[in-house]
Design goal:
The complex is a heterodimer. Chain A is mostly helical. Helix content of chain A is 58%, strand content 11%. In chain B, helix 8 packs across helix 13. The chains are: A mainly alpha, B mainly alpha.
Chain lengths: 111, 276
C-alpha cells in the first residue's frame, strides 16, 4: 500500500531489523522495570529513556550539529542503528526526481 | 451455631460445581463486593439467615472490658462464632491427607523424643509444659526434637549447610511448570493480547492509507523517513506495556527464590518467552 521497493531481500532485511529492534527495546524496558521497585517510577524512567533514544535517532536532531562532547550519545542509541538501517535499506540506489520551475532535477541518493 | 453439613465430599463437590460455573460465582462475588448495598438486606441469599446476635458469653470483649478466655476455668470450651465457609474449610482440612501426614509426623516426633516413657510420665511432662509461660523446653529436649525434625523433613539441613541444594525439580521441569503458570495468567487476562493485535492491524491500515504510494519527489523522501521513524517509535513505546511482567509478581518471586524452588534463569526464560 505504501509502495516501498517490492523486492524480497529488502523485505527480509526490513523485517529482521524490526524484530531485532523490538527485542532490544523490550530488553531495555524489562531491565528498567526490574531495577526500579515502584512501577510508576519505572514507567516514567522508561518513557524518558525511550524519548532520549528517539531524540538521538537521527530524524529529530541533525547529527552534524550536535556539539562534539555529545556525539557519543549517537552511538549509545539503538534507535539510531535501526532507523539508519531501515532508511538505507529502502532508498539505496533510488533516484529522486524533483520537478520545480519546469525543470526536472535529479537527486541521487549516495552515502 | 447452625448446622454445618460439611464433609470433605461436600467440599469436593462444591469445588466441582465452582469450576464449571466459575463465571457465575465470580460475577456473584463482584456484585457482592462492588455494588452499593442497602444496610438491611443480608448478603447471601443462598443460605439460611445467619444469626446476627451472638450470645453475651461468646462475644470476644465482654461488657466490663475484659477479653473472654477461649477456655473457661471449669474446662468448658466456648465455641467462637464461625461461619459456614470457615467450618467447611476447617473440616475439609481435618479430613485431608496433608493433615493426616502432619499428625503422623508429630506422633513420630513425640515417640522418638519421649518414646521410652510411660503414660504417667508423659502426663506429668504435659502438665509441666502447659504450666510454663513460654513452653521453655530443656536443652536436651530441643536437641532431640531438632534431630527428629531434621531427619523427617531435611529443613534444618538446608539452613545450616550452604551447599545443600533442594532435590526438587530439575531445570526442564521447573521451566515447564513456570511456563504453564505464566500461560494461565496470560489467557486469563486476554485484554492486553487482544489490544496488541487490534493495534497492529489498525495502525498498519492507517499507515498504509496515509503514505499511499510514496513517489520519488522530495516529499516522497520525507514520507519514507517519516514512516520508518513512525514504525520504530510504535515498537519502542509498545514495549512499555511489558513493564508489568516482572513488577506485579515481584514479591512472589522473591519468596520462592528465597526457598529455592527454581533458579531465576528459568523464571526469566519462561516470562520472556511468553510475553509479547
Amino acid at each position: 500500500m505504501i509502495g516501498l521497493q517490492p523486492e524480497l531481500l529488502l523485505l527480509g532485511r526490513f523485517l529482521l531489523v524490526l524484530v531485532l529492534f523490538n527485542v532490544t527495546s523490550a530488553c531495555c524496558c524489562l531491565a528498567i522495570s526490574i531495577i526500579f521497585k515502584d512501577q510508576s517510577v519505572a514507567t516514567l524512567i522508561a518513557t524518558l529513556v525511550m524519548l532520549f533514544e528517539m531524540l538521538f535517532g537521527g530524524l529529530l536532531l541533525n547529527k552534524n550539529s550536535i556539539p562534539p562532547h555529545f556525539q557519543w550519545m549517537n552511538s549509545l542509541s539503538f534507535f539510531n542503528y535501526a532507523f539508519e538501517a531501515l532508511v538505507v535499506n529502502e532508498v539505496a540506489g533510488l533516484t529522486l526526481v524533483e520537478e520545480k520551475f519546469g525543470f526536472k532535477i535529479d537527486v541521487l541518493y549516495s552515502n | 451455631m447452625h448446622a454445618a453439613t460439611s464433609t470433605s465430599s461436600s467440599v469436593a463437590a462444591s469445588d466441582q460445581r465452582s469450576n464449571s460455573t466459575r463465571s457465575n460465582i465470580r460475577v456473584q462475588q463482584d456484585m457482592q463486593l462492588f455494588s452499593p448495598k442497602p444496610p438491611s438486606i443480608h448478603q447471601s441469599p443462598s443460605r439460611e439467615a445467619e444469626p446476627t446476635y451472638t450470645p453475651v458469653e461468646n462475644e470476644p470483649v465482654q461488657s466490663n472490658g475484659s477479653i473472654r478466655p477461649a477456655i473457661v476455668s471449669d474446662g468448658r470450651f466456648i465455641k467462637p462464632y464461625w461461619s459456614e465457609e470457615l467450618m467447611n474449610l476447617v473440616k475439609g482440612f481435618e479430613n485431608s491427607d496433608i493433615s493426616k501426614s502432619l499428625h503422623h509426623d508429630m506422633t513420630i516426633a513425640i515417640q522418638t523424643t519421649y518414646g521410652g516413657l510411660d503414660e504417667r510420665q508423659l502426663q506429668a511432662i504435659r502438665l509441666q509444659n502447659s504450666e510454663r509461660q513460654g513452653l521453655a523446653l530443656t536443652r536436651v529436649d530441643v536437641q532431640s526434637i531438632t534431630n527428629t525434625v531434621t531427619h523427617l523433613t531435611g529443613y534444618l539441613e538446608n539452613r545450616f549447610n550452604p551447599s545443600f541444594t533442594r532435590s526438587g525439580a530439575n531445570w526442564w521441569d521447573q521451566f515447564k511448570i513456570l511456563s504453564g503458570r505464566t500461560f494461565k495468567n496470560l489467557y486469563r487476562n486476554p485484554d492486553l493480547l487482544r489490544t496488541h493485535y487490534a493495534i497492529s492491524v489498525i495502525v498498519a491500515f492507517v499507515c498504509g492509507f496515509l503514505f499511499w504510494k510514496v513517489d520519488n519527489t522530495l516529499a516522497g523522501f520525507q514520507n519514507r523517513l517519516g514512516v520508518m521513524f513512525f514504525i520504530c517509535a510504535l515498537f519502542g513505546f509498545g514495549c512499555l506495556s511489558s513493564m508489568q511482567v516482572f513488577a506485579s509478581e515481584r514479591l512472589i518471586f522473591m519468596r520462592e527464590r528465597a526457598n529455592r524452588y527454581y533458579t531465576p534463569f528459568t523464571y526469566f526464560m519462561s516470562k520472556v518467552l511468553s510475553t509479547n
